[in-house]
Amino acid sequence: MNEKQRLESTQINPADKKSEKDFSKYFQAVYMPPSLKDAKKRGKEEVTYHKDFGISEEFKEMGKGRKFYIRTYGCQMNEHDTEVMAGIFMALGYEPTNGVEDADVILLNTCAIRENAENKVFGELGHLKALKKERPDLLLGVCGCMSQEESVVNRILQKHSFVDMIFGTHNIHRLPHILKEAYLSKEMVVEVWSKEGDVIENLPRVRNGKIKAWVNIMYGCDKFCTYCIVPYTRGKERSRRPEEIIQEVRHLAAEGYKEITLLGQNVNAYGKDFEDISYGLGDLMDEIYKIDIPRVRFMTSHPRDFDERLIEVLAKGGNLLDHIHLPVQSGSSEILKIMARKYSREHYVELVNKIKEAIPTASLTTDIIVGFPNETEEQFEETLSLYREIEFDSAYTFIYSPREGTPAAKMQDNVPLEVKKQRLQRLNDLVKEIAVKKMKEYEGQIVEVLVEGESKNNPEILAGYTSKSKLVNFKGPKSSVGKLVKVKVSKANTWSLNGEIIEEAVGVK
Ligand code: SAH
Ligand code: SF4
Ligand code: F3S
């Protein structure tokens, strides 16, 4: 039996006294727990490309008369995985529902990036336990990045034995099999492949909306920043073939989508794993530039692999938007070094200058971690000074959260939580100060907005985003939803703009 077959046959019932007694033996023999140690050894294991995903006849009636509900906790990639799982459910005949109450299957698509993301999931499991008691036929599954963690799987097996299925990020395409096992056995089905990951094409998807769409261009991450769990939960870097991506983008354009976001944990490493062609993100963007889709974004960029070719292509403009999310993490070269980001403050500033020179209208946003182990006051102040120097449009800011199995989690840390909280507050004050200043510059200006729908708080008002991802609320006709329109900005708030439509432009390119 190879590893795959062994994993496929896995069923564990922690409630079963016998298996509980022999638990460790059983665990070792039948079920290979996801292992952070194994993940760290990037193997020579071949990445397999599967082009032929299909739902076999035996599963086709499975969802008849049943409803599914998926709750998503993570990043865009996680959300896009939810779209794929929804596509598989629909292909199996299930119907979607908007709440847990009338769902027959509930999946929690989890995120492991910080401790509070994990706590939310365990909290939700607590709530769902009661529902499961009321309706024992309900199937409850945990998937996503937390499922790739050994400690999480163990905790669910031992403390949340009412969960019916746990499956990992490499097992999404196996959902029909996993569901079938779960229906047949009513024992906990655990299928988590601790491997490098494959690339699977032709997966069904139910996209959330008709205006904007996500397109995966690569999976995994090989950067191993010392604080980060993603390389362990998502496997090694592997790129989709350009022709598959281009075909998907063409389809989206033909279906009338107005904006796509190319997704990857580190999109600048796109193509580095191809052995037969020399082809990078710049080349891909150059092809997509020619496709008749009005807006193209990409995320997330890693400063290290951001090359000249990409800058040159982005400078062409057109549908390639001038907003770049470029996580810096810290303004201190010493901290960056311990984070293993593999660039210095100077290198980052140089890169930003190059980008601004080639694309003068470019707006930059970033991610920052404060309170990394032993971060000194001076090092933190370097982050503040870098922020001031670059004048980012905005930033996602986080307090460092130790992740089990990562090198940083083993570091001694002399920074008290109270100090970390204060640093976050000080940074957030600066982020706000600069955001206010930059937003003010829009007053009186005309911006192009992709209209997404009614504003959250007021159905009389429409809302959409500019090319630089600024939220704009404005008065205009409902018929402009899904279109690009010109809006005159009357007032700038901290995180959004107010305005009035002046022209229903269809200006593409
Ligand atoms: N691949 C992207 C980011 C992925 S995670 C990149 O490298 O830029 C999104 C953000 O979460 C990171 O940029 C980082 O700022 C934050 N993050 C990741 N691990 C973290 C941790 N252990 N504690 C706090 N923040 C973390
Ligand atoms: Fe995590 Fe670093 Fe990879 Fe981003 S590049 S996902 S921060 S390891
Ligand atoms: Fe979270 Fe996994 Fe994304 S850890 S941030 S859902 S890749």
TrEMBL record:
Protein's organism: Metabacillus herbersteinensis
Residue positions binding [4Fe-4S] cluster 1: C75, C111, C145
Domain of life: Bacteria
The keyword Transferase appears for this protein: yes
Oligomer status and interactors: Monomer.
UniProt enzyme class: transferase
SMART domains associated with the record: Elp3 (SM00729)
Location of the TRAM domain: 440-503
Family listed: Belongs to the methylthiotransferase family. MiaB subfamily.
UniProt xrefs under HAMAP family: tRNA_metthiotr_MiaB (MF_01864)
Protein name according to UniProt: tRNA-2-methylthio-N(6)-dimethylallyladenosine synthase
Positions of [4Fe-4S] cluster 2 binding: C221, C225, C228
Compartments where located: Cytoplasm
Record's function text: Catalyzes the methylthiolation of N6-(dimethylallyl)adenosine (i(6)A), leading to the formation of 2-methylthio-N6-(dimethylallyl)adenosine (ms(2)i(6)A) at position 37 in tRNAs that read codons beginning with uridine.
One Pfam family recorded for the sequence: TRAM
InterPro entries: Elp3/MiaA/NifB-like_rSAM, Methylthiotransferase, Methylthiotransferase_CS, Methylthiotransferase_N, Methylthiotransferase_N_sf, MiaB_methiolase, rSAM, rSAM_horseshoe
A Gene Ontology molecular function term of the record: tRNA-2-methylthio-N(6)-dimethylallyladenosine(37) synthase activity
Annotated segments matching region Disordered: 1-20
Cofactor info, note text: Binds 2 [4Fe-4S] clusters. One cluster is coordinated with 3 cysteines and an exchangeable S-adenosyl-L-methionine.
